[in-house]
């Protein structure tokens, strides 16, 4: 089982060491066109989708690590290319349900889940062959830092919302997306967008472990949205090793199960 590493925050490649990984990770670093942001992201996420599809067809589970949440578009598209129609569980301190029209900052990382559900579809989703997921197939976990437009959207949407300690797990195949900033900012130093009053590291890891234990996770999408700094390296590396290790365990279990049928 290869780890798929996408060392980018949007279209900017991360500094080496931002996500501590072994040399065995498969790097996704395509040459991005020097045109618009959306052209570059579509190129990057199409490459991600191809790698995810190949990995799922080979081992039944893909583990993807990156520096932001937008990579999830490529992950979901790749799962679909492999012939699977998933639901998604989205761990994040933020809603990530803005559109280009509703966002006041223009930060596209705050639009990632909405784009998975079909928002601003022509910008990326349509280009990479993503089939938008229905709102009813999305679970948003511990999103506590919401802008007014996001709160209004979520109040009317069919997205399930729940805390880390009571995650509602859909039936069938799952994409499990984890933005590490879902953890309380006091537990994880160096976050790009820290949010307090959140769950502890142990609570988040327990919830993730319960979901993986269902055996239904076909793709584990990990967004390590933090700054790289020497003083944070050991803690960051421990989190990466733990989560990536669980993804590997899920892949090995699924492969063993497939070989027995």
Automatic annotation (TrEMBL):
GO CC terms: cytosol
Keywords associated with the record: Hydrolase, Manganese, Metal-binding
SUPFAM superfamilies to which the protein is assigned, alphabetical: Arginase/deacetylase
Entry's Gene Ontology molecular function annotations: arginase activity; manganese ion binding
InterPro entries xrefs: Ureohydrolase, Ureohydrolase_dom_sf
UniProt xrefs under Gene3D superfamilies: Ureohydrolase domain
Pfam families linked to this entry: Arginase (PF00491)
Homology family: Belongs to the arginase family.
This protein's name: Arginase
Organism, as annotated: Actinocrispum wychmicini
């Amino acid at each position: 089982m290869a780890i798929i590493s996408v060392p980018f925050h949007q279209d900017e490649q991360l500094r080496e060491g931002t996500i501590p990984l072994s040399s065995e990770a498969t790097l996704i670093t395509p040459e991005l066109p020097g045109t618009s942001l959306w052209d570059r992201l579509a190129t990057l996420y199409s490459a991600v989708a191809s790698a995810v599809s190949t990995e799922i067809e080979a081992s039944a589970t893909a583990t993807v690590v990156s520096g932001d949440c937008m990579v999830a578009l490529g992950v979901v598209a790749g799962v679909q290319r492999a012939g699977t129609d998933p639901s998604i569980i989205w761990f994040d301190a933020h809603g990530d349900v803005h559109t280009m029209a509703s966002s006041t900052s223009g930060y596209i990382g705050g639009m990632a889940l909405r784009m998975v559900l079909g928002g601003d579809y022509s910008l990326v989703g349509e280009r990479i062959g993503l089939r938008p997921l229905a709102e009813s197939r999305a679970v948003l976990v511990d999103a506590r830092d919401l802008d007014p437009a996001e709160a209004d959207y979520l109040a009317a949407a069919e997205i399930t919302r729940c805390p880390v300690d009571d995650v509602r797990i859909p039936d069938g195949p799952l994409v499990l997306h984890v933005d590490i900033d879902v953890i309380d900012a006091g537990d994880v130093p160096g976050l790009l967008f820290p949010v307090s009053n959140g769950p502890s590291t142990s609570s988040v890891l327990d919830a993730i472990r319960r979901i993986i234990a269902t055996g239904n996770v076909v793709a584990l999408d990990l967004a390590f949205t933090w700054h790289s700094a020497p003083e944070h390296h050991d803690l960051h590396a421990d989190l990466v090793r733990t989560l990536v290790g669980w993804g590997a365990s899920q892949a090995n279990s699924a492969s063993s199960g497939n070989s027995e049928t």
